[in-house]
Amino acid sequence: MIITGRWSRRLMRGVYLLILTVGALVMFIPFAWSLSTTFKPLGEAMAYPPIWIPRPWDFANIVRVWRIVPLAHWFINSLIVGFAVMIGNVFLDSLAGYALARMRFRGRNAIFMGIVAMLMIPFQSVMLPVYILLRDLGLIDTYAGMILPVVVSAFGVFLMRQAFLNIPQELEDAAVMDGHGRFSIYWRIALPLVQPSLLTLALLQFLSSWNNFLLPLLVANRSHLWTLPLGIVMFQQEYFVNWPYLMAASVLATVPVALFFLLFQKWFVPTVATTGLR
Amino acid sequence: MARQERLGYVFTLPVALVLFFFTLGPGLYALYLSFFSWSLLNHMRFVGGVNYASLLTDPLFWIAVRNTAVFSLVVVPTQTVVALIIAVILHQNLPARRFFRLAFFFPAVSSSAVISVIFMWIYNKFGLMNSFLGLFHITGPDWLGNPSFALPAIMMLNIWTTSGYFMVIFLAGLQSIPPQLHEAAQVDGASPWKTFTRITIPLLRPTTFFIVVMGLIGTLQMFDQSFIMSQGTGGPLYATTTVVLLIYQFIFAYGKVGYGAAATVLLFLLILGATLATNRWLGKSIEY
């Protein structure tokens, strides 16, 4: 009885590991396939049954794509927009989150509820009026147009408020006794105490801006303003049959994200889990 | 004290202003615009409820609503169940948990545009998907060129992308369940399956609620994948036209701003309705 129990537990573990391995393969194969296609001439890429290991390895696609598409330029555009969005969110969301958590003023709860209610209005659903607004403000074909609508987020305020709520009151009282002003308390005392949440917010906002497709699609009509996702899609529409080229561009766009993800994964997974922030 | 009051407003003002201008304001602006006829180039003309009336009798709008609803109704339950299964398995004491967690999570942080391009290649008539089906002697369709298969192809892509993300949230939910409850159930002789359905699932309800609402909001406003994989057309034969893609086309292809604004208002009502329904179903607090 004991032996069968142990064997059935071993069997279950085996089944679990099998499911996970198959699942991980399913997650991994599309990326592996795009990598494999990158290093093959078109004919070999279309071969049936598929050839996984290119023979020989052909680096021409990646070099040619790098020459014909301004990937580096789009990359820099994505960086500019991503950093601006990240800095805006880190500073402004935390400032509001601090006030809503630690300061007393009339209507504070109403303001907080109002901000949280904005989570119900996702960007896609108000695309049309936002586009008209950006057009009237003369922000089409500007970096500002790609930054301003997402420079703060209701989610960020919510996350930072939760973080600031956990700071012990005594620390603040002591700072007030020392003659610190409100801004100085926020900047010198409170912010350093919520560093993990701040870093999470920074990572997630950078990444969501980096991956944003719709806002650049609305704003950037001219190719010199295209961000990486928009540029890749435009490139796809132009070269839609040359799959090795397209996969080369996809690989070049994915590698930085993968490195970024591996570098900061320690900060990503647990914090996303507790906040559910996207 | 008065000074502190004023500073509170100053600190929240930037966020409030931006949210007003780019979220709440546009929502109200859409409501306003929905009563006008306007092509962005001509003069605005007040038309009352005409946009709503013609939208609600426009077959294309109903096709978009149907596609969006079917997409949501397939993707949300599937990704929730897949995420739960993987999370429950990862919650066991197994080797390489960290590796698996990362592997499942990575698609969720990748760019939807790049992933869509990669899947267009995989869904090609002579692509990887059909070679795989060929192993079982199945002749696969031209996934994105066939009206019956284009939307399911996008559904599979979406489930592939988001399951890992929700899995991580489920995992956090599982970790917050006190282990004593499971131990007590075991002592009482409950089978693992009974423990799962009578203890784990009910206690995960707040997490499930969050995941279903996030999934609904995400799928009801799906745009990127449809736009990219159909080259902006919503085809073949409108098979991948979602409500948001249609709104995009109303402005940029048909120049019907008021019409698009009416669709925006209706989409918002759809999202609100779906969220409230989920709240009635799953939003109750837990009783131990």
CATH superfamily of the largest domain in chain A: MetI-like
Secondary-structure class of chain B: mainly alpha
**Mean pLDDT across all residues of chain B, rounded?**
90
Strand order of the largest sheet of chain B: 1-2
Alpha plus pi helix count of chain A: 14
Overall domain count of chain B:
1
With helices defined by DSSP (H or I, 4 residues minimum), what is the helix count of chain B? Answer: 13
Output the helix-strand order of chain A.
HHHHHHHHHHHHHH
CATH topology category name of the largest domain in chain A: MetI-like fold
Uncertain parts of chain A: none
The gyration radius over C-alpha positions of chain A equals 24 Å
The top-level CATH class of chain B is: Mainly Alpha
Considering the protein shown, what is the CATH homologous superfamily of chain B?
MetI-like
- CATH class category of the largest domain in chain A: Mainly Alpha
Give the CATH architecture of chain B.
Orthogonal Bundle
What does the main sheet of chain A amount to?
none
Largest interface: A-B, 95 and 90 residues
Tell me the number of structural domains of chain A: 2
CATH overall fold name of chain B? MetI-like fold
The poorly predicted ranges of chain B are none
Structural class of chain A: mainly alpha
Question: Could you characterize the architecture of this molecule?
Answer:
The complex is a heterodimer of chains A (278) and B (288). With 278 residues, chain A is mainly alpha-helical. Chain A folds into 2 domains: 2-62; 69-275, MetI-like (MetI-like fold), CATH 1.10.3720.10. Chain A contains 14 helices and no strands. In chain A, helix 3 crosses helix 14 (243-275), helix 5 (108-117) packs across helix 8 (154-165) and helix 13 runs antiparallel to helix 14. The longest helix of chain A has 37 residues, at 2-38. The radius of gyration of chain A is 24 Å and the shape is globular. The mean pLDDT of chain A is 88. The longest helix of chain B is centred in the first third of the chain and has 33 residues, at 59-91. With 288 residues, chain B is mainly alpha-helical. Chain B starts with a helix and ends in a 6-residue tail after the last helix. In chain B, strands 1-2 form a two-stranded antiparallel ribbon. Chain B has helices spanning 2-33, 50-56, 59-91, 97-109, 112-122, 128-134, 150-175, 179-187, 192-203, 205-220, 224-229, 243-252, 257-282, and strands at 36-37, 45-46. In chain B, strand 1 (36-37) and strand 2 form a beta hairpin. Chain B has a single domain (59-282), classed as Orthogonal Bundle (MetI-like fold). Classes of the chains: A mainly alpha (278), B mainly alpha (288). Chains A and B meet through helix 1, helix 4, helix 5, helix 6 and helix 10 of A and helix 1, helix 3, helix 4, helix 5 and helix 6 of B.
